[in-house]
Design brief:
The chain is an alpha/beta fold. The protein has 5 helices and 5 strands, in the order ββαβαβαβαα.
Amino acid sequence: MGPRVLINGIWYYIIRTLRLKEQTPLQHAEAVRSWKLHWAWPRDGKRETLEGAGIPLMEQYKDAGLDMMFNHAQFDDGTVSVEAGLMEMVARMRGGRLKVFKGQNDAWLEEYRLYHRDGDGRVVKENDDAISASRYGIMMRRFGRAGDWDFHRPINYPKLGLV
């Protein structure tokens, strides 16, 4: 499972990343269910896997209680270009419109530092789960919905008996 992306206007904040290795979809879902997100998933998520006894990975996550998007991650025009997604992420980061919170994103930051291209200029797709999950979120931003954050509510201070 990848990062939790908070969508606020045109700015995107990666606020939490979870890295689990050698876990089942049920274990992943259990770890992130409390995040209460609408989950984007890759194009190959409908592929039946041997590990899932012939059940597509997306269906396994859905059956485990996650709110999965109807279609796989894709741009408005239906394309799924990795390069286009990466370039959009880079442009947003350089323009200050994609930010990664410190603290709960060590896995994401580690992947970002190790992300590279081979001698032919192709992206090396190893240990890139958090980066890919972020890219899926950016691709599907048109379906983003605001959380239950109310930044304009009055502050309620606890009654401590002090004047």
